[in-house]
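Quick question, first post here. What does this chain look like in 3D?
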Amino acid sequence: MRMLGSIRLGITCGLARVAGIAICLAAAVPSISQTPPNPSSVVLDTVVAVVNRQAILASDIDDEIRLSVLDPGRAGQGVLTRQRALDQLISRALIEQQIRREDAQAAEPTQEEVNIRLAEIRRELPACVHDNCASDAGWKAFLAAHGLTPERVDAYLSYRLEILRFIEERFRPGIHISPQDIETYYRTTLLPEYGPGEAVPSLAEVSPRIEEILLQQQVNIFFDEWLTNLRKQGDVEVLDPSLESVETPAATPGDRNGGKDAKGKGGK
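> Answer (accepted):
Ran it through. C-alpha coordinates below.
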Protein backbone atom coordinates (compact mmCIF):
# COMPACT_ATOMS: atom_id res chain seq x y z
CA MET A 1 0.00 0.00 0.00
CA ARG A 2 1.11 3.56 -0.60
CA MET A 3 0.62 6.10 2.16
CA LEU A 4 -0.23 9.66 1.24
CA GLY A 5 -0.95 12.70 3.34
CA SER A 6 -4.27 12.95 5.15
CA ILE A 7 -6.99 14.67 3.12
CA ARG A 8 -9.23 16.88 5.21
CA LEU A 9 -12.81 17.52 4.24
CA GLY A 10 -14.00 21.04 4.86
CA ILE A 11 -16.87 23.23 3.86
CA THR A 12 -17.95 23.08 0.19
CA CYS A 13 -20.63 20.40 0.14
CA GLY A 14 -20.65 17.38 -2.16
CA LEU A 15 -21.62 13.73 -2.20
CA ALA A 16 -19.32 10.83 -1.34
CA ARG A 17 -19.96 7.49 -2.96
CA VAL A 18 -19.15 5.48 0.16
CA ALA A 19 -22.26 4.76 2.23
CA GLY A 20 -24.09 7.63 0.48
CA ILE A 21 -22.74 10.12 3.01
CA ALA A 22 -23.12 13.81 2.20
CA ILE A 23 -19.83 15.49 3.02
CA CYS A 24 -18.29 18.92 2.64
CA LEU A 25 -15.12 19.16 0.60
CA ALA A 26 -12.39 21.72 1.07
CA ALA A 27 -12.87 24.55 -1.40
CA ALA A 28 -10.68 23.96 -4.46
CA VAL A 29 -11.51 27.11 -6.46
CA PRO A 30 -10.95 30.54 -4.87
CA SER A 31 -13.79 33.02 -5.02
CA ILE A 32 -13.54 36.09 -7.21
CA SER A 33 -12.97 38.35 -4.22
CA GLN A 34 -10.23 36.02 -2.89
CA THR A 35 -11.95 35.98 0.51
CA PRO A 36 -9.76 34.13 3.03
CA PRO A 37 -11.10 30.84 4.40
CA ASN A 38 -13.62 31.11 7.18
CA PRO A 39 -11.76 30.34 10.41
CA SER A 40 -14.93 28.76 11.78
CA SER A 41 -14.92 26.01 9.11
CA VAL A 42 -15.67 22.62 10.64
CA VAL A 43 -14.09 19.37 9.45
CA LEU A 44 -17.02 16.99 8.97
CA ASP A 45 -15.15 13.92 7.77
CA THR A 46 -11.80 12.64 6.52
CA VAL A 47 -10.89 10.36 3.63
CA VAL A 48 -8.69 7.71 5.25
CA ALA A 49 -8.21 5.34 2.30
CA VAL A 50 -8.97 4.96 -1.40
CA VAL A 51 -9.67 1.57 -2.97
CA ASN A 52 -9.63 1.68 -6.76
CA ARG A 53 -10.87 5.29 -6.63
CA GLN A 54 -13.55 4.45 -4.04
CA ALA A 55 -13.15 6.54 -0.89
CA ILE A 56 -13.34 5.17 2.63
CA LEU A 57 -14.12 7.78 5.26
CA ALA A 58 -13.29 8.06 8.95
CA SER A 59 -17.03 7.90 9.60
CA ASP A 60 -17.15 4.55 7.78
CA ILE A 61 -14.69 3.19 10.32
CA ASP A 62 -16.84 4.49 13.16
CA ASP A 63 -19.84 2.81 11.55
CA GLU A 64 -17.96 -0.48 11.13
CA ILE A 65 -16.98 -0.49 14.80
CA ARG A 66 -20.56 0.15 15.90
CA LEU A 67 -21.89 -2.63 13.65
CA SER A 68 -19.27 -5.13 14.84
CA VAL A 69 -21.52 -5.85 17.81
CA LEU A 70 -23.73 -7.79 15.36
CA ASP A 71 -20.88 -10.03 14.17
CA PRO A 72 -21.03 -13.42 15.97
CA GLY A 73 -17.47 -14.10 14.82
CA ARG A 74 -16.21 -11.34 17.16
CA ALA A 75 -17.62 -12.90 20.33
CA GLY A 76 -15.01 -12.62 23.08
CA GLN A 77 -12.55 -10.65 20.92
CA GLY A 78 -13.13 -7.26 22.50
CA VAL A 79 -13.61 -3.93 20.73
CA LEU A 80 -12.76 -3.81 17.03
CA THR A 81 -9.69 -1.61 16.48
CA ARG A 82 -9.73 1.15 13.90
CA GLN A 83 -6.86 -0.49 11.99
CA ARG A 84 -8.71 -3.80 11.81
CA ALA A 85 -11.95 -2.05 10.87
CA LEU A 86 -10.20 -0.28 7.99
CA ASP A 87 -8.71 -3.58 6.80
CA GLN A 88 -12.21 -5.06 6.77
CA LEU A 89 -13.59 -2.10 4.84
CA ILE A 90 -10.79 -2.30 2.26
CA SER A 91 -11.35 -6.00 1.68
CA ARG A 92 -15.10 -5.55 1.51
CA ALA A 93 -14.75 -2.74 -1.03
CA LEU A 94 -12.60 -5.00 -3.23
CA ILE A 95 -15.11 -7.84 -2.95
CA GLU A 96 -18.10 -5.63 -3.69
CA GLN A 97 -16.33 -4.12 -6.70
CA GLN A 98 -15.70 -7.64 -7.97
CA ILE A 99 -19.34 -8.62 -7.42
CA ARG A 100 -20.51 -5.60 -9.45
CA ARG A 101 -17.98 -6.38 -12.16
CA GLU A 102 -19.19 -9.96 -12.54
CA ASP A 103 -22.92 -9.62 -11.97
CA ALA A 104 -24.50 -6.77 -10.06
CA GLN A 105 -27.72 -8.67 -9.30
CA ALA A 106 -26.54 -12.25 -8.80
CA ALA A 107 -25.84 -12.19 -5.08
CA GLU A 108 -28.43 -9.71 -3.79
CA PRO A 109 -30.52 -11.22 -0.97
CA THR A 110 -34.26 -10.81 -0.65
CA GLN A 111 -35.85 -8.87 2.20
CA GLU A 112 -37.20 -12.17 3.51
CA GLU A 113 -33.64 -13.54 3.78
CA VAL A 114 -32.56 -10.40 5.61
CA ASN A 115 -35.51 -10.72 8.00
CA ILE A 116 -34.66 -14.37 8.73
CA ARG A 117 -31.04 -13.46 9.52
CA LEU A 118 -32.18 -10.57 11.70
CA ALA A 119 -34.48 -12.88 13.67
CA GLU A 120 -31.56 -15.29 14.22
CA ILE A 121 -29.36 -12.49 15.52
CA ARG A 122 -32.02 -11.18 17.88
CA ARG A 123 -32.59 -14.71 19.18
CA GLU A 124 -29.04 -16.15 19.29
CA LEU A 125 -26.36 -13.43 19.35
CA PRO A 126 -24.80 -13.54 22.87
CA ALA A 127 -24.98 -9.77 23.32
CA CYS A 128 -28.61 -9.83 22.23
CA VAL A 129 -29.54 -12.72 24.49
CA HIS A 130 -28.15 -10.74 27.41
CA ASP A 131 -30.23 -7.68 26.45
CA ASN A 132 -33.39 -9.63 25.56
CA CYS A 133 -33.36 -8.47 21.94
CA ALA A 134 -36.06 -11.00 21.07
CA SER A 135 -38.55 -8.54 22.52
CA ASP A 136 -39.29 -5.33 20.64
CA ALA A 137 -38.45 -3.22 23.69
CA GLY A 138 -35.16 -5.05 24.24
CA TRP A 139 -34.18 -4.73 20.57
CA LYS A 140 -34.98 -1.03 20.53
CA ALA A 141 -32.88 -0.49 23.66
CA PHE A 142 -30.01 -2.55 22.20
CA LEU A 143 -29.95 -0.46 19.00
CA ALA A 144 -30.05 2.80 20.94
CA ALA A 145 -27.21 1.68 23.23
CA HIS A 146 -24.97 0.98 20.22
CA GLY A 147 -25.94 4.00 18.11
CA LEU A 148 -27.71 1.91 15.45
CA THR A 149 -31.00 2.16 13.57
CA PRO A 150 -33.20 -0.62 12.14
CA GLU A 151 -32.52 0.68 8.62
CA ARG A 152 -28.74 0.59 9.10
CA VAL A 153 -28.88 -2.92 10.53
CA ASP A 154 -30.97 -4.11 7.56
CA ALA A 155 -28.46 -2.65 5.10
CA TYR A 156 -25.57 -4.21 7.02
CA LEU A 157 -27.14 -7.68 7.05
CA SER A 158 -28.06 -7.36 3.37
CA TYR A 159 -24.49 -6.83 2.19
CA ARG A 160 -23.18 -9.49 4.57
CA LEU A 161 -25.58 -11.99 3.00
CA GLU A 162 -24.66 -10.72 -0.45
CA ILE A 163 -20.96 -11.35 0.15
CA LEU A 164 -21.62 -14.75 1.70
CA ARG A 165 -23.67 -15.85 -1.28
CA PHE A 166 -21.01 -14.63 -3.69
CA ILE A 167 -18.34 -16.60 -1.81
CA GLU A 168 -20.45 -19.75 -1.77
CA GLU A 169 -21.36 -19.57 -5.46
CA ARG A 170 -17.82 -18.77 -6.57
CA PHE A 171 -15.75 -21.16 -4.43
CA ARG A 172 -17.97 -24.02 -3.27
CA PRO A 173 -18.72 -25.78 -6.60
CA GLY A 174 -16.21 -28.49 -7.36
CA ILE A 175 -15.15 -29.08 -3.75
CA HIS A 176 -15.49 -32.74 -2.84
CA ILE A 177 -15.40 -34.11 0.70
CA SER A 178 -14.77 -37.85 0.83
CA PRO A 179 -16.22 -40.27 3.41
CA GLN A 180 -12.65 -40.79 4.62
CA ASP A 181 -12.28 -37.04 5.26
CA ILE A 182 -15.47 -37.09 7.33
CA GLU A 183 -14.40 -40.13 9.35
CA THR A 184 -10.96 -38.64 10.03
CA TYR A 185 -12.53 -35.42 11.35
CA TYR A 186 -14.95 -37.45 13.47
CA ARG A 187 -12.20 -39.51 15.12
CA THR A 188 -9.45 -36.92 15.46
CA THR A 189 -11.40 -33.70 16.06
CA LEU A 190 -14.93 -34.42 17.26
CA LEU A 191 -14.56 -37.40 19.58
CA PRO A 192 -11.86 -35.76 21.75
CA GLU A 193 -14.36 -32.98 22.49
CA TYR A 194 -16.52 -35.36 24.52
CA GLY A 195 -15.66 -36.09 28.12
CA PRO A 196 -16.14 -39.30 30.08
CA GLY A 197 -19.79 -40.21 30.49
CA GLU A 198 -21.01 -37.86 27.74
CA ALA A 199 -23.29 -39.33 25.10
CA VAL A 200 -21.28 -39.55 21.90
CA PRO A 201 -23.23 -39.35 18.61
CA SER A 202 -22.58 -41.91 15.92
CA LEU A 203 -20.63 -41.06 12.79
CA ALA A 204 -23.82 -41.36 10.75
CA GLU A 205 -25.61 -38.82 12.95
CA VAL A 206 -23.02 -36.08 12.58
CA SER A 207 -21.69 -36.82 9.08
CA PRO A 208 -23.81 -34.09 7.37
CA ARG A 209 -22.62 -31.48 9.86
CA ILE A 210 -18.99 -32.58 9.54
CA GLU A 211 -19.22 -32.47 5.75
CA GLU A 212 -20.54 -28.91 5.92
CA ILE A 213 -17.70 -27.85 8.22
CA LEU A 214 -15.07 -29.38 5.93
CA LEU A 215 -16.68 -27.76 2.90
CA GLN A 216 -16.59 -24.37 4.59
CA GLN A 217 -12.95 -24.85 5.55
CA GLN A 218 -12.06 -25.44 1.91
CA VAL A 219 -14.17 -22.48 0.79
CA ASN A 220 -12.34 -20.31 3.32
CA ILE A 221 -8.94 -21.42 2.03
CA PHE A 222 -9.83 -20.68 -1.60
CA PHE A 223 -11.45 -17.38 -0.67
CA ASP A 224 -8.49 -16.18 1.42
CA GLU A 225 -6.08 -16.91 -1.44
CA TRP A 226 -8.35 -15.07 -3.89
CA LEU A 227 -8.72 -12.07 -1.59
CA THR A 228 -4.96 -11.86 -1.04
CA ASN A 229 -4.42 -11.70 -4.81
CA LEU A 230 -7.22 -9.16 -5.17
CA ARG A 231 -5.56 -6.85 -2.65
CA LYS A 232 -2.20 -7.20 -4.39
CA GLN A 233 -3.70 -6.33 -7.77
CA GLY A 234 -5.91 -3.49 -6.53
CA ASP A 235 -4.93 0.15 -6.16
CA VAL A 236 -5.20 0.64 -2.39
CA GLU A 237 -3.96 3.82 -0.72
CA VAL A 238 -4.08 4.33 3.04
CA LEU A 239 -4.00 8.08 3.61
CA ASP A 240 -3.77 8.02 7.40
CA PRO A 241 -0.47 6.50 8.58
CA SER A 242 -1.94 5.73 12.00
CA LEU A 243 -4.36 3.30 10.34
CA GLU A 244 -1.75 1.36 8.41
CA SER A 245 -1.88 -2.22 9.61
CA VAL A 246 0.48 -5.14 9.20
CA GLU A 247 -2.51 -7.47 9.24
CA THR A 248 -4.53 -8.40 6.19
CA PRO A 249 -7.58 -10.16 7.63
CA ALA A 250 -10.38 -11.47 5.50
CA ALA A 251 -13.20 -8.99 5.85
CA THR A 252 -15.97 -11.45 5.35
CA PRO A 253 -18.76 -12.19 7.78
CA GLY A 254 -17.74 -14.58 10.52
CA ASP A 255 -20.99 -16.53 10.67
CA ARG A 256 -20.69 -18.79 7.63
CA ASN A 257 -21.22 -21.82 9.87
CA GLY A 258 -23.54 -20.10 12.28
CA GLY A 259 -20.60 -19.92 14.67
CA LYS A 260 -21.06 -23.57 15.68
CA ASP A 261 -18.92 -26.68 15.53
CA ALA A 262 -20.01 -30.26 14.82
CA LYS A 263 -21.34 -30.59 18.37
CA GLY A 264 -23.57 -27.56 17.83
CA LYS A 265 -21.49 -25.48 20.24
CA GLY A 266 -19.99 -22.11 19.52
CA GLY A 267 -16.86 -22.57 17.45
CA LYS A 268 -13.73 -20.47 17.44
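The CA atoms of residues 19 and 44 lie 15 Å apart.
Residues 203-233 form the longest helix (31 residues).
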